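Much of what follows relies on a compact textual record of a protein's fold. A record is reproduced here so that you can trace the correspondence yourselves:

. . .
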Amino acid sequence: MKTPEQRAAERESRELSKLTSGIAGRSTEDLRPPQAPVPKQIDWFKPHPANSVFDTSKSATYWRDLKRDIREAGRIIDPVIALPDGTLIEGHSRIRVAKELATEGINLGRIPTVILDLAPEDAERRVYLGNLSRFELDEDTRLTLYAKVWPDYYIEAKPGRPNKGDTVSPPIRRADIAAATGKSERQVKRDRAIIQEAAQRARAKGKPAPDTEEIREARAKASAKRKEKGHRPLPYQAIGIVVELTPSDVKVLLSLLKSLPDSQGREITEKIQKATRTARSKKK
């Protein structure tokens, strides 16, 4: 039977396959770097700054179960992924638990590690991709990360169009993001409108990219628009009015109705005449 750590690693690989390619049929092996794991000592590793956004989403139960699994295994089974200087890309939780166990006198030995030489923006993006589907985040934080992971769709004016001369990477599509995030395409489109509004607000404040503050403001504006639209009266919404009319008033109204189109004037005329007859019968 597979341990929870092994199952989590497999889920991570599957989700990473969806997020990075958007192409069905990719195996999890395709996502793993070609280099063989390199054993490393625990003190060599350091966390990536981008990973801090996920720390608050890890519950006490999550840490307890992971620590129990690693303690029982006596080692870290799946290789972690790091940059050449030891900055982690994948495996932050496992390394943290390994360091805690080391202070308790439990030596897990050398940690199998895959080294990737990535540009800073690619490393940050991979940290986000590896964690977005694994932890619960509030929606404002999640949209902030979507804008960083898929800027070509969420920020650019014309998503889905490749840059001139770009024949290597296919453009990200709304359907790809919907499949990766578990949202409908309609919701993805709505998220894009919120993120673009947030990006405009961020630029007005001199920020290079929107954060949760701008996302929250843009979401409130979109919500207000939907609410206003929902309460807007229809052009011909019927309204009941009770007024007192004299017989002469009725004659004036009936003469005015003659100027209306036949069908419309006839219908209103019949309603007035019916109301007049009802009023007369009640007086009798």
Remarks:
- The first strand starts at residue 38 and ends at 40.
- The CA atoms of residues 47 and 96 lie 9 Å apart.
